[in-house]
Amino acid sequence: MSALAGVRVIDFGQYLAGPFGPMILADLGADVIKVEPVTGDGMRPVTKPFVGCQRGKRAVALNLKDPRGVELALRLVATADVVHHNMTVGVADRLGIGYEACRAVKPDIVYCNTYAYGRQGPLAHFGGLDPLFQASAGIEWDQGPVEAGHPPLYLRFGMADTANAFASVVGCLLALLHQRRTGQGQELWTSLLDAAQWLEADTLLVEGEPRSRPPLDPGQCGLGPGYRLYATQEGWLQVAAVTPAQWRALCQAVGAPELAEVDPAAERERCEAVLSDRFATRTALGWSRLLDDAGVPNEVALDTNEGELVLFDADAERLGLVTDSPHATLGRLRQFGPLVQFSGTPARAERPPPRFGEHTREILAELGLTDAEIDELHTAGVVASPPDPYPWPV
Amino acid sequence: MTDALGGLRVLDLSWGPAGALGVLLLAEHGADVIKVEPPGGDPLRGYDGHAVWCRSRRSVTVNLKDPAGLEAFRRLAGTADVVVETFRPGVADRLGIGYDALSGANPRLVYCSCPGWPEGHRREHRPGWDALVQAASGQQWEQPGWRPGPVFLAVPLPSVAAMWLVAAGILAALVDRERTGRGRHVRTSLFQGVLAYTTQIWSWVPDGGSAYHAVMAKTHPPGIHQQMVFEVADRRWVHVSMMSGLPPRRSMDDVVGVGAEPTDAERFGMLSEAERAEFTARRTEAFRSWDRDALVAELRANHHAVEPIVPAGDALGAAGAPHPQLAANGMVVEVDDPALGRTTQVGVPVHLLGTPGAVRGPRPAAGEHNTEVFGELGYSDAEIARFTTAGEMGAA
Predict the structure, then answer these.
(1) Whole-angstrom distance between the N-terminal and C-terminal Cα of chain A?
(2) What is the pLDDT of residues A88-138, one digit of tens each?
(3) Which of A28, A176, A203, A236 has its CA 20 to 30 A from that of B291?
(4) Are residues A248 and A367 in the same domain?
């Protein structure tokens, strides 16, 4: 049995920050039902990000603008432990699936709404995408680095989206545990703004003045001579000489003994210039073996070829860090696997990201509807199953 | 019960941000967290960010190499619901404080391990510092830079992803324990933290073709979001979102004053190279004429979502008022740190309306609660003094 066996999640989210959290809950063993508009999740046309957020779910397509669609949604909620979505403030209430409506049909429901900015306050009515919150949190400033004269630099993959999704997972599990211990449900929320700021949790002010990490160098290599990337004759090497002994060993190993007793933080430029010249004389792999022998922590920076070397890495496969499953339109789909392992938990059969409406009939039947009733709901446009031809790439 | 985790005890053996911040998410929702440090204190205490990582908990010091210290820790673990450690695989077992050693006497124990590399991985015995995981996982190659090749990530992304995995894994196991009565060994790693960030781009299908695999591939210059970064007056910067969820009142270029109303060709990017250069120059000049805060206000008034691009401390108030919405969310908190003085830190990012979380207190001094915690287990002051101060615990 998986850790969240017996936990049911209704996922009304679309795009990325909403659906990603429920995917993690599915990884942890929850039965996640994706409730999708009859027009399809707006992210379906963008194949890669879409499949990255939908693994492990079943999908039902409901028209929430039809009262009968809302009624079906609430019948699903009545069977669930958690409701999760990323609608902007007020939208769920208007649709009839807000916290009060859900609590009326399931008094101990855990109800999670993720926002761009927050639940109330000066900017709560705004939506907005991931880049805003890399900007507000300082991530783009640090990565420029702007202090060294570069423009700010946006990091790929949606760091704030991911952080917000995880914050919502933690919130749902906190509330679910509380519900299991006390019988009390509750409402909770997270935001891209708050979660992104947590990626910079190290930041603090002392008497109102900022204290921060050592800055990234203009070449975007690292934080100091002992903790940075070096370009080599072939490839790049990341060095992490974090103790004085490791710094001395590094200087000896690369043939710069004159720097062994220098404080690398105090003479950053001089040390980096000398070491950069030395590292240019051998390959990254050659240096890595030499530094291993000298006891200096290091790794060659890996070019994964868009992830392929990780997705097909023998250790990653053996340890269950990747999944590989058949997919109706893609043929086969390989992704990173569950991110947390539990003792005593056998591997689960993986469910690929569901097609639009793939489980509409199955889920309505579970609610006790007859085939004739389900047919009639299809005809009336209240629910939908995969159309033929199928208009989306996934 | 007013806290989600009221009555639960967590022992935090971790070093570094992933374990400490993962535990912080539990501490500020009511768990009684006890940081367990070597007698000299956590070696990362000298780093300013440590004051945030390790707030809202108590601290004891224990010499785990001393049999009396090991026994005291095991007795303490008998009172715990959760233990968290970030040693390299095998180290906790060697010290006698691994999952198998502790769960025999306390089968309800949830035990979370978060090393740099997962147990069983060929790198499991190599050092797992954040930057090393950035490099060997491929994360440094995946991010854009101002030159070809890998770039160092200023934010320790493997660690600050793994922090969520630590908290989520522990909580899932605690939910499971309510059903089964048994704890579990929860395992994640900084490497799995990196994988969490690749969800949108690292997938593979055999016949996906170039169109599938090109979606969101790394590009030079960096992709669509980077093109919405604009320099304003005084070498300051803003980032405009491509959507705000609100119907715009005037277009962005109209608000900024780029010139004539944008044509459809401009709107949809169907310009010749020369026309594009001319348009970009006009737009750049228009943005540079604006005071940053005035432009942000004007764009927002016209329903465009925009943020100033700032150093991390600005959101907390380093440059004047804190970010107004961050403050409204209760995310800017004052903490009196015994070592640093009056500090401003980030608040609790998970907002439970029924059982709200809160900062419980500043980072404790190393061993501040030795007498209180071990006294409850029946140890005398003399015994406590011996195993909390003597010797040095070996580094992992």
Answers:
(1) 29
(2) 999 999 999 999 999 999 999 999 999 999 999 999 999 999 999 999 999
(3) A203
(4) no
The total of structural domains in chain B comes to: 2
Domain of B72 in residue numbering reads as 9-200+323-395
How much is the pLDDT for B262? 66
Strand partners, A384: A61
Q: Are B337 and B345 in contact (CB under 8 A)?
A: no
A52 to B199: CB separation less than 8 angstroms, yes or no? yes
β-strand pairing of A8-11 with A331-336: unpaired
- Does A216 reside within a domain? no
pLDDT of A17 strictly over 90: no
Whole-number pLDDT of residue B276: 83
Count Cβ atoms within 10 A of the Cβ of residue B375 and give its class: 0-12 exposed, 13-18 middle, 19 or more buried.
middle
Cα B182–chain centre separation: 29
Any B CB within 8 A of A149 CB: no
DSSP annotation of B235: G
Please list every residue in chain B whose beta carbon sits closer than 8 Å to the beta carbon of residue A210. 311-313, 316, 318
- In B, which residues are within 8 Å of A197 by CB distance? 312, 315, 326, 331, 346, 349
Q: Do residue A25 and residue A106 come from a single domain?
A: yes
Residues in B closer than 8 angstroms to A42, CB to CB, are: none
Question: With the CA atoms of B384, B386, B392 and B396 taken in that order, what torsion angle do they form, in degrees rounded to the nearest 10?
Answer: -40
* Segment A199-211, tens digit of pLDDT: 999 999 999 999 8
Q: Omega into A45 within 30° of 0, i.e. cis?
A: no
Say what the pTM is. Answer: 0.97
**Cα–Cα distance measured from residue B346 to residue B331, given in angstroms and rounded to the nearest whole number:** 5
In this structure, the answer to whether residues B40 and B141 fall within a common structural domain is yes
Predicted pLDDT at B259: 80
**List of chain B residues with pLDDT < 50:** 392-396
* Residues A56-91: tens digit of each pLDDT: 999 999 999 999 999 999 999 999 999 999 999 999
Tell me: cis bond preceding A215? Omega within 30 of 0 counts.
no
Exposure string over A93-117, b if 16+ CB within 10 A, otherwise e: eebbbbbebbbebbebbbbbbbbbb
pLDDT score, position B396? 34
Helix residue spans in B268-369 (DSSP H): 273-288, 292-301, 324-328
d(CA B375, CA B182): 28
Tokens of A361: 């009939």
Nearest chain B residue (CA) to A315: B121
Q: Which residues of B touch A132 (CB under 8 A)?
A: 239, 241, 305-307
Residue A301 φ then ψ, to 5°: -70, 125
Q: How far is A174 from chain B (nearest CA, A)?
A: 6
Q: What's the CA gap between B305 and B301, in Å, rounded?
A: 9
Q: Does A192 touch chain B (CB under 8 A)?
A: no
Is the predicted pLDDT of residue A46 greater than 60, yes or no?
Answer: yes
Residue percentage of chain A with pLDDT more than 70: 98
Q: Is residue B85 part of a domain?
A: yes
Does A46 contact chain B (CB < 8 Å)? yes
Listing from the earlier edge strand, what are the strands of the sheet with A331-336? A322-327, A331-336, B203-204
Model pLDDT, residue A151: 96
Residue range A135-182, pLDDT digits in tens: 999 999 999 999 999 999 999 888 999 999 999 999 999 999 999 999
Domain boundaries, position A290: 222-231+236-300
- Check: complex ipTM more than 0.95: yes
> Do both B303 and B337 map to the same domain?
no
CA quadruple B240, B242, B243, B244: dihedral, nearest 10: 0
